[in-house]
Specification:
126 residues; alpha+beta; 3-stranded antiparallel β-sheet
């Protein structure tokens, strides 16, 4: 955690140089968003460590080999290959996985602790 720059500090530093106006987080979105006061551009900060959003996350990533990950900090995924017998079976498997998700790694502090091995973002498409 000592190497993490909290989102609030980062945004404050940017806003001192280029004033920002806060925007709402998109439903199910991961980024905290601001637009520059001049209206020319906007920024977003995904602060999964300093400001976790696990409870509202709706993300699911499926790797090329059929592993479904509901969290970027998960150590392992769920194999969807057995459900790939039909579109219906695959849809049901994904819905069930999403409804039963218990991954609150950032809120529990496991994301920053490094206590458990996890898949790399490049592997997950994060």
């Amino acid at each position: 955690m000592e190497q993490v720059l909290p989102a609030a500090v980062m945004v404050d530093r940017i806003s001192r140089q280029w004033p920002l106006l806060s925007l709402c987080r998109s439903p199910g979105g991961t980024a905290l968003r601001w637009r520059y006061r001049d209206g020319v551009a906007a920024i977003g900060v995904v602060a999964s460590i300093s400001e976790p959003f696990c409870a509202g996350c709706n993300r699911l990533r499926i790797t090329a080999n059929g592993q479904a990950f509901t969290c970027l900090f998960a150590g392992q995924g769920t194999d969807l290959k057995p459900a790939m017998t039909s579109d219906h079976d695959l849809e049901r498997a994904i819905c069930t996985l999403n409804q039963r998700r218990q991954d609150h790694y950032s809120e529990e502090g496991r994301a920053a602790s490094g206590a458990a091995p996890r898949a790399e973002m490049a592997y997950l498409g994060g």
